[in-house]
Design a protein that fits this description.
heterodimer, A: alpha/beta, Rossmann fold, 7-stranded mixed β-sheet, two-stranded antiparallel ribbon, 34 helices, 12 strands, elongated, B: mainly beta, SH3 type barrels, 6-stranded antiparallel β-sheet, 1 helix
């Protein structure tokens, strides 16, 4: 059969938890294009289906309760229905998915859609569940009253999709009739007046193409003014604001107060439609979900189960990821070595090995953790548990001005802030979401552990009189716990401050539907996990790569061979000559090779000293000196801007240990520990490191924003550079103050 | 006779009818759109703040605060 080349665009729209996404999956299989709408992180999913020789592009819109644009999701839906996205075709047809269990509210949205006048089909989903609850529904009569075709579907079993496709073909080009007499006369008169104004002003160009009546009605109803500002900017329409205000005043006098008139009128319509069509039982039957919820939302049992569940997730993230992370590390090391053995020494090789492979490899090394974490989140989300977790944690989170939805992002940030920040998309309130994004990086992520373990092992006494609880807890463990606690307390304080200052606003109502429990669908889980991981890889592939190269260049250039290697050359030459002599015995050979290695390390350190990074480090020495740091620690801090864990390797290079030191191995770590203990201030015999200095470095890393991946993801999620810059500034300031206070208090007590 | 009580005073399992939603107009509108409006019949599932209520065929978690109050009229069981 010939397939028509012209595809029709179908928008799939409905309340959250109606089974809309499942229906989308049944209609189109897997989506062909997934991305974000420009400027907002609202997922855009488009798939294609062919029926009877005609092809349809199906767009899955985010779940929403209303078309009055308040949240990001609603704005996207309205913009899409009005054809305001250049790269997305105009919508030819709407499929409105209704949940049979909750028709009153679902019809509210349907009445808004019908008014658009586009060809509309109703997919009545979950009828089986509704009947299980004891509801009875006359579907034929319902279809007659709403005036558009109604198709019963059972998306989770794939039932009804074929009929739906057939009806798509029949409904093409058949405009839906708006519900008659929806609004009172006084309101319709005001709409007519406004329409006249637009005709007179010849502002109809953007209106005529698509639902002008609907648009005017929305302008009058939406006090938020999103559409008005987007379509009719104040500068071009000076009188519009006053006109709308006057119309609303007149409506208030006529007992049609905006916005209440909208809910009153639409629910009245919904009521009329459902009268004698829907029979509700006196008491809803207790379902399996209710029985599960009796336990899982219980204050004691529920919270206990939640805690155990989260512990399990964390254990799996850390233990499960370890072997894969080791593989990634081994892999990037092997790639680096392969390049080293196949390229001549020089800037290009160093760039590839140290800059590209090393920098991006360090970040991609966190991919396994992110993958496992997202797998758990996707499973918990898909089976319906996530909203219960939000309910349980809401009491705790509301005490810092956030809602229960912020809990999972914060918790995820203990593994890595990147998935944590990506998980904030479920937070519908923009201020809450931004606050969560800003404080999530303060949680102690796993990239902070290498520097913590190194410095704690080197400088915090482990044994002796410093143990508590019969040796179970020692000072080292307490220090680590203290650093975790520092992150949490600072995050709580910061959240409180943000909610009282820059992100101040009325606390918005916390409303959350608890969907019925179901078995998670493997394809949905797999799809979500892969998608998030891909986003992370893309992020690491662009910004992280760029910054890694910049930092590599700062550490490499100017690479002046003569001045750096000059002083060491005669001795190097002499060693090589001696090594070439055949009469050497074993001990002489070893001694010479050791000296050669020591010289090479000195050369490497000298390169570091005269590199841009080294100069920067010395330049900022006056700034970091109050923290008890020498210029080398300053260097390490600058170099670890791309990722915190880099600091350990940089300290290794800077304190003359060679870059190939493996801080992961016990031997490498103890060597580094030894070197750090011996480090002296330039030109003196005063040791650089003592307990207050080690503590001040750790406090700095607990609070700083040294992670390009996090900053990049903040940029991606907020859509502007303002917030990553703000994050970096406020966290660095906090880190500096924290380190300063720690050092000085430490010195006062006993440095 | 006490007709209206705040939503969070209902005990577990108690049915009620919403009689008023008070607060900032924008938030009230949000609740109305969500279906929590005058005349809606609900049943308390898990009291407290936030609480879980049953509304039509679904369960909903709601948190009240100083700027938002839902008043309900309890329906005595057996009516």
């Amino acid at each position: 059969m010939a397939i028509s080349s012209v595809a029709s665009t179908v928008a799939l729209i409905g309340n959250p938890n109606t089974g809309k996404s499942t229906l989308f999956g049944e209609l189109v299989g897997s989506p062909q294009r997934v991305g974000n709408y420009p400027g907002v992180t609202v997922e855009k999913k488009i798939g294609r289906t062919i029926h009877d020789g005609h092809s349809y592009n199906v767009i899955d819109l985010p779940g929403l309760y209303s078309l009055s644009p308040h949240s990001r999701d609603e704005m996207v839906a309205v913009d899409l229905l009005l054809g305001r996205y250049d790269n997305t075709p105009a919508v030819d047809m709407v499929v409105c998915v209704l949940d049979a269990c909750n028709l009153d509210r679902n019809l509210y949205l349907l009445s808004q859609i019908l008014e658009l006048g586009l060809p509309t089909i109703v997919a009545l989903n979950k009828l089986d569940v509704a009947e299980g609850l004891g509801l009875r529904l006359d579907v034929e009569e319902l279809a007659r009253r709403v005036g558009v075709p109604v198709v019963c579907t059972q998306a989770n079993r794939g039932r009804g999709t074929e009929q739906l496709k057939a009806v798509l073909g029949q409904s093409l080009g058949r405009q839906a009739a708006p519900p008659r007499g929806l609004f009172p006369k006084a309101f319709e008169e005001e709409v007519a007046l406004l329409e006249e104004y637009f005709t007179e002003q010849k502002k109809t160009v953007s209106l005529t193409s698509r639902s002008p009546h609907w648009l005017v009605e929305r302008l009058l109803l939406d006090t938020s003014g999103y559409l008005k500002d987007a379509l009719f900017p104040k500068s071009e329409n000076p009188g519009l604001d006053d006109l709308l205000a006057a119309a609303r005043d007149r409506l208030a006098e006529a007992k049609c107060r905006v916005p209440k008139i909208e809910t009153t009128s639409r629910y009245a319509w919904s009521h009329t439609v459902l009268e004698d069509v829907l029979h509700r039982p006196d008491r809803y039957r207790t379902t399996m979900s209710d029985r599960i919820d009796h336990v899982l939302t219980h204050r004691v049992w529920g919270t206990g189960i939640f805690a155990v569940l989260m512990l399990t997730v964390f254990q799996s993230v850390f233990n499960g990821a370890r072997p894969i992370m080791a593989m990634v590390e081994y892999g990037s090391g092997a790639v680096g070595q392969f390049i080293e053995s196949h390229m001549a020494e020089g800037a290009m090789r160093s760039l590839l090995v140290d800059g590209v492979v090393g920098g991006v490899g360090a970040v991609v090394g966190f991919l396994p953790q992110i993958l496992i974490l997202f797998m758990f989140i996707a499973i918990l989300e898909d089976c319906g548990y996530m909203s219960r977790a939000a309910f349980l944690m809401d009491r705790l989170m509301s005490s810092v001005g956030l809602s229960g939805r912020s809990f999972i992002p914060m918790l995820s940030s203990f593994a890595c802030a990147v998935p944590g920040i990506m998980a904030t998309r479920v937070i519908s309130n923009d201020r809450d979401r931004l606050t969560t994004i800003l404080v999530a990086p303060l949680m102690t992520c796993s990239a902070r552990l290498p520097i913590y373990t190194l410095l704690i092992a080197a400088f915090i006494p482990a044994v002796g009189e410093h143990s508590f609880l019969g040796g179970w807890l020692n000072l080292q463990g307490l220090t680590l716990a203290g650093l975790y606690l520092l992150g949490i307390i600072t995050a709580v304080m910061a959240a409180l401050v943000f909610k009282k200052t820059i992100l101040r606003g009325e606390p918005s109502p916390f409303l959350l539907e608890l969907p019925d429990y179901k078995w998670p669908s493997p394809s949905t889980v797999l799809y979500r996990v892969l998608e998030r991981c891909w986003e992370f890889v893309c992020c690491a592939g662009t910004i992280v790569l760029l910054v890694s190269i910049l930092i590599w260049a700062a550490a490499y250039y100017p690479h002046d061979r003569e001045t750096v290697e000059g002083p060491y050359l005669p001795r190097m030459q002499a060693i090589e000559n001696e090594l070439a002599q055949p009469s050497l015995d074993q001990s002489q050979l070893e001694r010479l090779e050791q000296e050669q290695a020591a010289l090479e390390r000195k050369i490497q350190a000298a390169y570091q000293h005269q590199s841009i990074l080294g100069r920067l480090g010395r330049m900022i020495e006056p700034v970091v000196e109050p923290l008890g740091w020498d210029w080398r620690i300053g260097c390490a801090v600058i170099a670890s801007f791309s990722a915190r864990e880099v600091v350990v390797a940089t300290l290794g290079v800077i304190y003359n240990l060679g870059g190939d030191l493996d801080p992961g191995s016990d031997k490498g770590r103890s060597q580094l520990t030894e070197k750090l203990r011996q480090a002296k201030w330039d030109g003196t015999q005063q040791p650089v490191f003592n307990i207050p200095v080690a503590l001040s470095i750790m406090v700095f890393y607990a609070l700083c924003a040294q992670c390009v991946a996090t900053l990049a993801v903040i940029k991606a999620e907020t859509g502007s550079w303002r917030w990553p810059v703000f994050s970096f500034c406020y966290m660095t300031t906090l880190a500096y103050i924290g380190a300063f206070v720690t050092y000085h208090i430490g010195m006062m007590i006993g440095g | 006779m006490v007709d209206f009580v705040p939503l969070n005073q209902l005990v577990s399992g108690q049915p009620a009818e919403i009689s008023d939603v008070k607060g900032e107009p924008g938030h009230v509108h949000r609740l109305h759109e969500f279906g929590l409006r005058c005349g809606t019949r609900i049943q308390m599932f898990r009291p407290g703040n936030p609480c879980i209520i049953r509304m039509a065929g679904s369960k909903v978690c709601v948190r009240m605060n100083n700027s938002l109050q839902v008043l309900v009229k309890p329906i005595s069981v057996g009516n």
